[in-house]
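User: For my dataset I need records formatted as: sequence, then structure tokens, nothing else. Please produce one.
Assistant:
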Amino acid sequence: MFTPNEIQNINTLLSSPKNITVVSHRNPDGDAIGSSLALVVILKKMGHNAMYVSPNSIPDYLCWLTENKDIIIAEEQQEKATNAFKNSDIIFTLDFNALHRTGEITQAILENISSTFIMIDHHQMPDAYAKYTFSDVNYGSTCEMIYDFITEIDQKENIDKEIATCIYTGIVTDSGSFKFPKTTANTHRCVAYLIEQGIENTNIHSTLFDNGNYDRLQLLGRALQNMVLLPEYNASYITLSQEELNLFKYKKGDTEGIVNYGLNIKGIEKTAIFIENAEDKMIKISFRSKGDVDVNTFSRNHFEGGGHKNAAGGKSFLSLKDTVNKFITILAQENSTNEI
């Protein structure tokens, strides 16, 4: 949490109406969107002019959460996003800790802004761009951090059903429906309070996870067919080419969670999914692991990424085939080193 002195300073900043912009990372997920919307609504209740800027579009499976919300999509409304940031007294950056995670367009804007930056995030190795930083890898989601932050600034009584729904969405998605290791007693106490505010938790879960259509299920089937086991390295990987994405009418969010299937096999401790993006001429990568296997460091060292110890992302500008070969080569080198 912020130090008591920092909370006092932030409360002073928020004691009179301000122009405030909340921004999340590019390709926002449930935690990024949920935490951002929850904070915006709280700030508006406090009398501030607050808005949410998303670097790019919201995935279809989360659009229900953003209905009737005035969200600025930076890559589609660059001038409007630029003006929002330039006119902001305070900029909250949520669910990321390095400006490059917002993408080239938003990053270029943010790097030239003199507003007061406040970071709230749960990923490893934060950059030092914010005046006030709440960075804690022990949290399973930024939404749980936002709940604690709202409590610390004495606004907990303003958490209504709408805000609670946003916070719950981020917690349930980033915790893997409460099954990941960083789901703590505090997480459940937070969720209990959210349920007391009237959220329809069963309906939220159904909307998030029971929303598949035929093409999405077919894409999942193809991904599982493409899974390759590397038992000698206790690893597995999945590939999806642009051709396969097109075949099954891929929409943003359709591949969410597929990477986790690679850990369902006995003996597998590290897995990855490699997804080709022809438009950006890159391979998007997600890594997952169990126990002490650190995919955050692995991704940072080899694939221009990072994240958490057991969940990280990365990218490659090689071909899909060459990216996979690089992954296998690194695993072989690491295995050889460990055997020495």
